[in-house]
Amino acid sequence: MESVLIVGAGMFGLTTAIELRRRGYSVTVLDPGPLPHPLAASNDTSRMVRMDYGDDALYVELAGKAIEGWRVWNQQSGRTLYHEDGFLMACSQPMAPGEFEHDSYQYLSKQGYDLQRMDSGRIKQQYPLWNGDRYKDGYLNPAAGWAEAANTVIWLAEEAQASGVELRLDTQVSGFIEADNRITGVITSGGYRESAELVVVAAGAWTAALLPDLAEVMQPVGQPIVYLQPVDPDLYRGPQFPPWAADIPRTGWYGFPANRDGIVKISNHGPGRPMTTEEPRDLNAAEVSRFNSFIKDTIPSLAEAPIVNSRLCLYCDTWDGNFWIGHHPNKGGLVVAAGGSGHGFKFAPVMGGLIADAIEKVDTPYAERFAWRPKGEATAEAIRYTGE
User: Fold this and answer.
1) pLDDT tens across 57-94, in order?
2) What is the CA 325 to chain-centroid distance, rounded?
């Protein structure tokens, strides 16, 4: 039975551990803890689950499989990890060919999905909390929703341990055991050395710190998140207030229904702020100002809601926005599974299979897209808005 050490107990690491254990490997996951780690991308209240990817057939297909998987996970877990409240794409300008919203609408419609086209009148009627005078076009995709990120990670950890995975939450990996261009284990911050036949680095934003040769192709990027406490949270619960994106190619803003605690989360998926994993996660004045301006023009009632928290979510951004899953070309025994780029969590139900296939060098339609690759021209997924 081949022994595997996985560095990182986030979504990438845990789903890989479960799948490799299912395939007969001996698996140990190392993480400094606690779980979910409060600074990791797999933490927090919510993550978007949608298959809207323009006309990118590969991501649409993969997201469709993931949504099926989320439904199965709800049944298996006995919990509502995934809330299928739909996904509203709102536009202040008419959707036009070549733009993300239009191409997503057209492609999904051709695939047979029952999307509801929106106009100003319908937005006012169906979503009265929105500024229907500003938002004049868009659509609702009912086959979408949001996942409870932290609770999903907790459940995955339980599933991993139940399957026989050894999970160590007090271990900080600081380096690797290497000989003759082959990785044979890890070195912890305490100087402990542990060997394995295969090491998988699934350390999210910390990946490039462990493997500096990846700094040219992936980096930590901070994205603003704001948490609001409306007076009447029930007005903002799904599905009457679904997950949404508002002019996302031009603003980067998207958000979620109120969670169980009545908190409404609004996030940005834009250029972000390049930073290190050690820097403070506080929003600066410009980021707060940009949020305040946006929310007043979009969902005016939330402009009066108190901000109960705000922070930067740390993406592990690859140069092209695609995941980074594959064997290191120059170091045998080492696989990297990282580069979520702010859109990876939705794929949790299929991610373990993708990574395990890459480990076993199975030829799949996804292998080439996510494989080790030289830096080149940025793809559509990596090109985010540049300003409002």
Assistant:
1) 999 999 999 999 999 999 999 999 999 999 999 999 99
2) 15
Per residue in 185-210, pLDDT tens? 999 998 999 999 999 999 999 999 99
Give the model's pLDDT for residue 376.
Answer: 82
Letter for the amino acid at 187? I
The average pLDDT across 152-169 equals 98
pLDDT band of residue 51 (cuts 50, 70, 90) is: very high
- The pLDDT-based confidence of 43 (bands split at 50, 70, 90) is confident
User: What letter represents residue 228's amino acid?
Assistant: L
pLDDT of residue 388: 42
Q: Please, are residues 77 and 290 in contact by the beta-carbon 8 Å criterion?
A: no
Q: How many CA atoms does the CB half-sphere of 28 hold within 13 Å?
A: 18
3-state DSSP of the chain: CCEEEEECCCHHHHHHHHHHHHCCCEEEEECCCCCCCCCCCCCCCCEEECCCECECHHHHHHHHHHHHHHHHHHHHHCCCCEECCCEEEEECCCCCCCCHHHHHHHHHHHCCCCCEEEEHHHHHHHCCCCCCCCCCEEEEECCCEEECHHHHHHHHHHHHHHCCCEEECCCCEEEEEEECCEEEEEEECCCCEEECCEEEECCHHHHHHHCHHHCCCEEEEEEEEEEECCCCHHHHCCCCCCCEEECHHHHCEEECCCCCCCCEEEEECCCCEECCCCCCCCCCHHHHHHHHHHHHHHCHHHHHCCEEEEEEEEEEEECCCCCEEEECCCCECEEEEECCCCCCHHHHHHHHHHHHHHHCCCCCCCHHHHCCCCCCCCCHHHCCCCCC
Cα–Cα distances in Å, from 379 out to 118, 296, 327, 372, 384? 28, 32, 22, 15, 10
Mean pLDDT of 356-378: 93
Q: Are 222 and 314 in contact (CB under 8 A)?
A: yes
Q: Considering the entire predicted model, what is its pTM?
A: 0.96
Q: What is the CB neighbour count within 10 angstroms for residue 280?
A: 9
What does the pLDDT read at residue 384?
Answer: 59
Tell me how far CA of residue 360 lies from CA of 145, 264, 291, 297, in angstroms.
32, 41, 45, 50
